Amino acid sequence: MGSSSRTDAQGAPVRPRIVFSDMDDTFLAPDKSLLPRNMAMLDRLAEEGIEFVPCTGRAWHAIPPEVRRHPATHYGVPSDGSVVIDAASEKVLLDQSLGARRALALLSRVGGLLDRMTFEVFADGRVLTNGASWELIGQLGLSAAQTAYMQASRTLVDKPLEQVILDARTVERVGMCWGVGAGAREVACAARLAVEEDPTLRHTGSYGSAIEVVDARASKGSALAWLCDRLGIAREQSVAFGDSPNDLEMIRAAGDGVAVGNACEALLAEADHVTATNAESGFATYLEALLG
Q: Domain of life of the organism in this record (predicted)?
């Protein structure tokens, strides 16, 4: 793993002009820390004028600042492609957001589940939640790393969830997490059915005990295609890295879709190439071979 064999019609390696990467379990270490080799590769991308775009289910401000503010990062795709962000100004360039109306309707449909499931509002670059959802995070049986990340990245708002939604400028997406405890399967089924009642929504995910709810148009793949078109970059000159179901559209859309070695089976099956695991800095491993 880690080798690259992308070639053009003459058999020469295709040099990327833009690199997209998921964050959790792809670019980041298993404990969600930054890996030195991956950060060194961002330095090299900046030096060589190759764009780096973090593509993640995270809100913009939940992406590590060392990545958001890196000289290679001029754009970001947070909230599963609900928005494309200009990194310097934080201006929304592409808006495929869920919006307040549909978020409120979904909240109403899942109201009976909120004693067993979080409901988190991804809005204006942040993750907003109330006290009840906040307290549930530590009770869901998630990994220590996931629990710590969720608690650190959420903004606690002392308001009912309805008001949190109404007060937001842009509701990008919604997250719902039910963990791994007793009754989790029933909660998961009910939550998915509530989303599927509205055909203008879809749900995806990056781990099994939660779903990420977005506008049906929004995906990392649609954001990748839009940004390449905006920048005048052929998709054949794009590389994308991922590990989870919410990366599938991005892997398909990129000129070269790369799965890290720890990726889910669906992604491994569809990727053009497979690199080392995220723990082994698979992102850097692949690009070191590609760039020479």
A: Bacteria
